[in-house]
Design a protein that fits this description.
With 237 residues, this protein is α+β, with helices and mostly antiparallel strands. The protein is built from 11 helices and 4 strands. The relative contact order is 0.16. It binds zinc ion (ZN).
């Protein structure tokens, strides 16, 4: 591909942004629409899940030092494509050339997930409150707890990039790790897909409890009518 540049004739950031944009368009012509990371304003993430993702990475000192340089890459629009699926993140990043990043994240263990589901019992009202991060602080602490919460620790993350940088964690991988925070900001449910768990389980107990109460107070209403109206309300549809 054209526009390859070396460390010594590195263009300005403004030029690099233009190059990234041109590369994205060229890739789209060849492969169809991409899913770039576009940051509006100064912050990479504004909502609970995106902020929590970044906070978790930065809570490990060793990782925090190495991913710092990925911030500006992420903010400058150098992530041309980023996709999240179960246990895997794949991305294309514009640097001195175009590089492909793969990040594998271990699935959340059944044991950890079980204790998180138990901690959530009756405390998360519906999927809406879950994705918006409107749950009690104690629960946020459970989700964020290092090694036991929902977020991966560095040992559960393996990463690769096809750039010539010999560093274990090059700036392209660093950018993508932040890019995940940005993507989760707009689509928090992808977090659960990434970790291979069903977020519905976190609200199930709360919903069951509410349904029991509703049915107990239902008087002459039929169970069917209650189910239709109130399930819709509980799920925020
Ligand atoms: Zn790289």
């Amino acid at each position: 591909m054209s526009w390859r540049y070396s460390y010594y004739d590195k263009p300005s950031v403004a030029e690099q942004r233009k190059i990234a944009e041109a590369r994205r368009k060229e890739l789209e012509r060849k492969h169809g629409e991409l899913q770039p990371i576009v940051i509006e304003g100064k912050k990479i993430a504004r909502n609970w899940w995106g902020i929590a993702w970044n906070k978790n990475l930065e809570s490990y000192a060793d990782l925090a030092n190495r991913i710092e340089r990925g911030r500006s890459y992420c903010k400058n629009g150098f992530i041309l494509d980023l996709r999240i699926s179960e246990g895997e993140i794949t991305a294309t990043v514009s640097g001195s050339s175009v590089y492909n990043v793969k990040i594998h994240i271990e699935k959340l263990s059944a044991g950890k997930w079980g204790s998180i589901v138990a901690a959530c019992a009756k405390r998360v009202e519906n999927i809406g409150t879950l994705v918006e991060g409107r749950f009690p602080q104690e629960l946020a602490d459970v989700f964020m707890k290092q090694g036991e919460g929902l977020f991966p620790n560095p040992k559960e993350i393996s990463m690769s990039c096809d750039c010539p940088d010999f560093a274990m964690l090059c700036k392209h991988i660093a950018a993508v790790l932040y890019g995940v925070g940005a993507r989760l900001d707009s689509d928090p449910l992808l977090f659960f897909q990434l970790r291979g768990v069903d977020p519905g389980e976190l609200i199930k107990k709360s919903v069951e409890e509410k349904m029991r109460n509703l049915l107990a107070n239902a008087g002459k209403k039929s169970e069917r009518v209650i189910a239709d109206n109130d399930v819709a309300r509980l799920f925020g549809v």
